[in-house]
Amino acid sequence: MARESEDAGMAKASKVKRQKKKKTKENKTRTVQANILYDNAKGEENPNRHYANNKIKTTKYTVLSFLPKNLFEQFHRFANVYFVFIALLNFVPVVNAFQPELALAPVVFILSVTAIKDLWEDYRRHRSDKEINHMDCLVYSRVERRYVEKYWKEVRVGDFIRLRCNEILPADVLLLSSSDPDRLCHIETATLDGETNLKQRQVVRSFFDLDCDFDPLKYNSVIECEKPNNDLNRFRGYIIHRSGRRDALYKENLLLRGCTIRNTEEAVGIVIYAGHETKAMLNNNGPRYKRSKLERQMNVDVFWCVIILLVMCLFAAVGHGLWMFQYGDKRPVFDVLSPEGTDLSPIMSAIYLFLTMIIVFQVLIPISLFVSIEIVKICQVYFIHQDMDLYDEETDSHLQCRALNITEDLGQMQYIFSDKTGTLTENKMVFRRCTVAGVEYSHDANARRLAMYQEMDSEEEECTSHGGTLPRRDSVTSHQSAPVVLRSQSTKSHRRTGSRAEAKRASILSKHTAFSSPMEKDITPDPQLLDKVNECSSQMDFMRFHSQPMSQLPSDLSDIIDFFIALTICNTVVVSSPNQPRQKVKLASRKSLLSSSSSLITNRSSNKGCSSMLSSPSAESTLTKLDEERPPRGLDHAFSPVPPCYDGKAWDKEEGELRYEAESPDEAALVYAARAYKCSLVGRLPDQVTVELPHLGKLSFELLHTLGFDSTRKRMSVVVRHPLTDQITVYTKGADSYLILILLSFSKKIVYRTQNYLNLYAADGLRTLCIAKKILSKDEYACWLQRHLEAETAIQGREELLFESALRLETNLQLLGATGIEDRLQDGVPETIASLRKAGLQIWVLTGDKQETAVNIAYACKLLDPEEEILTLNAFHTNFAPFEIYPSSSPSSSSSHTVPFMVHRLGLVIDGRTLAYALDKSLEDKFLAVARSCRSVLCCRSTPLQKSMVVKLVRNKLKVMTLAIGDGANDVSMIQVADVGVGISGQEGMQAVMASDFALPRFRYLQKLLLVHGHWCYSRLANMILYFFYKNAVTLIFWYQFYCGFSGSAMIDQWYLIFFNLMFSAFPQLITGTLDKDVSAETLQQLPHLYVNGQNSEEYKPYMFWMNMIDAFYQSLVCFFIPYFAYADSDVDLFTWGTPITTLALFTILLHLGIETKTWTWMNWLSITFSIALFFTVALCYNASCPTCYSPSNPYWTMQRLLQDPLFYLLCAITPVAALLPRYFYRACQGTLFPSPVQVGRQLDKLPTEIRRNILSLSRVKVGSPLSPKPPFLSLAKPSPKGCNKKDQRSFPSSNTPPS
Question: What is the pTM of this model?
């Protein structure tokens, strides 16, 4: 009772405290308290009551809201509103043309089809929601004083949840307790970002030192955190304890919904965000919907159809008014009186007739066009998914289409913007060479090892390639290859089986650890450097034995050991064991490890877990600790005579058991490189990193802070207390261009040498990183720490404050050395870029890499050609105007910007700093002029924001279709800005894929996706849309108005009029729009320039719409007047004459489709046969069973009589031929006399396979082949790039123009 009254008092006090808070603060933060404090209080007193519950509802509709909400959404499409208006107009007696109920049929059918599709999709979402909401989890109950099972949907913000190993998190939970002795919890975030490596999360600092299990009843703290947001990599807040102490909260304390608990038996946390407020749900946007270029063109033509409709109705209304006017006061006997029984004036008759004709001619606007397009696009996506050439066996992944309605845009791309690392390259980082203290170590044996892998790659491609796909080397193929040095025993066992299935199983197992193929792990050390490492270790062992200070170690050897220590600890790599996958390595004795480090002997228990950017101690405890005088200790305290837990043989064995879970391939490569020199990372805790060094055993570095990498600083730092010297040391690694600027001035000689080696590394295409360190005095660290802790506990502007804090620390660094890491090109990249270039696509590469590295890779992947002259633009100050070189760069004397002469002989290389100036409003036009004059553009050292700005600039200024492709989080903004975004499902997670419209396993698949499927999708949809406009424009009733006084009467039964376009002629065009192939896939890939057909919109030009309209009017004339003259002066009734006209129109429309169809399959024949059979079946049944359906008309037995009349069959033979003769003649002449490249490709497909392949091979070699496009030099007036004619190219020496 006392406890409950105390809790009630606390609840009351906290309520008063909350009321005093400012409203502005409440708008920016969220306050979370434990629900168990309010179990006995009324519901309105619970401060968490306003937060979302954990029930997920991704459905759009309920049973009651489905009909009104779905109709409301469908009426957002203007066409549906128009058709409903027409149908309702039929209910007005004075203007109706058809039976009102019958006129509703088409629009009801279209709305029903769409509604059924939406309902089915929503039902699937409902089933998924129900399954998720009814999963179980353990929630603490105050009444039962234990954890009880509840459904996920019953969880609330403020509940305590117990989590067990391999369970999925039901909500965003703040970690308060863990069964792990180090208070860690490991999670797998693959469902959020696709990354399979384990992430460490740690208990909130104030709950770190609990000696017993966490008791929710003793929890009395208040949590202040930020409002729900979708940033997966950020969480800011603090926890206020009853004592008033305030501890900062970080993303490392938060477990996100959807993640899986690993390697932790139990954990307890409090729910911070639930349901739709969790970060996972806020990131779940579903498929993306865009508007394609073709659809925008189509909407213009729909507008023209409306204009034509209004003109025809106006013409008929004027004609009717004049016809009525000629009678004067003498009314015709058949005139219909007004509802009041009076005569209508000619003007009123014309107005009513205008509305009637809108109803009659409504077919001119294709009501089923939009639904048909959606159906065809879904079918196209299905067939793209079924293409096995786009399936990657190694990763067991295939193409994903996330935007369902822009498939045709793939056939109209003009510019491609690509990332480099992970997109063009493998993103398999392999340590290649390094320089330490100004001395370079070439690692020749390691180079030979990598060359062996490349040779095995080429051999395997020759032996095992099949079906047009080339297997790519990684952990799978490495298991099948010849032995290489340092291969592990488990890998050998897989190699001995020789079975592809076994190798694939081995690959699946290895996927649990990213970046861990033998090629990446098995580094061959450089003998010279290995000798120095051993010499350094032996000297340190000697100094330890003789109790000599470490300062006596020669500086070059000291730099070497510091270099490898930095490689080992300056990262976020988690250590695990492969024998028990996903299990953390248990060190032999934590106490013995701590005893080996002098810095961890004193006050270790009172300071368990020191400060980092992830978790920092309170300012008071840390600063107090700094002020304490440490007892004097000699080296006998720093080392034991025999290193604890160290034995050379045991070390080798343990090394084979360690597995590194890295968040990036660069980190893994550097840790594996250090391990090759016996400097091994063997354990990582939130407050310490354990490293094993030769001769010295295991040393534990007290980890004070981790300053993570960001795209602005371009570096990462760790602050540690060195166990050998007891000094606070900063180790930093980062991009050389940024790190060189913050080095000490007295080390210029080493910096100069290192810079030269870095340039050589970059010239070899290696990725470069610099390694540096800094020793802080106690006063310097205390001064910096005070402000850093203030930054850490801030909620508003925390990122900016932490950034400034990192900049203050990372100054006056001592350069240790640099590394060169090789990132191999993906298979097929040079060939893909060459093909895309021949297809008229302009390719720009936007990368954050060093300029020399990017240029070397650009040459390797054929982006840059040795014959090109390279313009290199590097700016060093704001007054630099790099684009003034443009007029003088051309040998032509003309300075005009309209026709750049060197368009296909220049390559542009520009760095990030220059790009910042180039994107300025005053220079962007000049930049575009220079860039468009170049065959290739390479932007180096560019930030994610610059990438997106470049894409946006080109897209908006040049009005071209753009595609952006990348694989990492830094490419997301670029992917989202482009017309089409493509994500590579590579090794950097799934952020790019989740933001993309299409996802590919490899860059090389882009070739077939664009050149084949893009071409097909565009060609099919363009022709289908034109056919729709033509089919609906065959308006037979218009000509009849000249014979009925423009009264709106029809000679065709209204049933045929209503269902003609909706049923009888609908199916064949859907089949053609889905399956038609104008050119085969093989020819399209062999002749890439056929892709220009889509770039220039050759299949859908504005004049084609008008040509189809004219053709439709001509065909309607033929179909009307031939039967008219055939039945002239006969006694047939109106429907006996009108029904043959309908039949002839159907035959003509279907034969017209046959002329336009390029590929005939059994489904084409079946659909046409079905349409004709359906028409005659409906006609026969309707004419036999419905004599009085539409009184006074009588269609009884009409079709039966016609089928007995020879004249009907004669008309069916003559009329379609006469109607289609002009179109057939035009197609025949065009294909024979003026064939387009696509028609030539289609003719090639008809040749025997061997002859066709010979011609195709000749066309690629022979200059000036008739299949080659004419040389389309780019001009500033023309936005679309074209392919280049090799005959007009000149050779230029490869040169890098010096910076202007």
Answer: 0.71
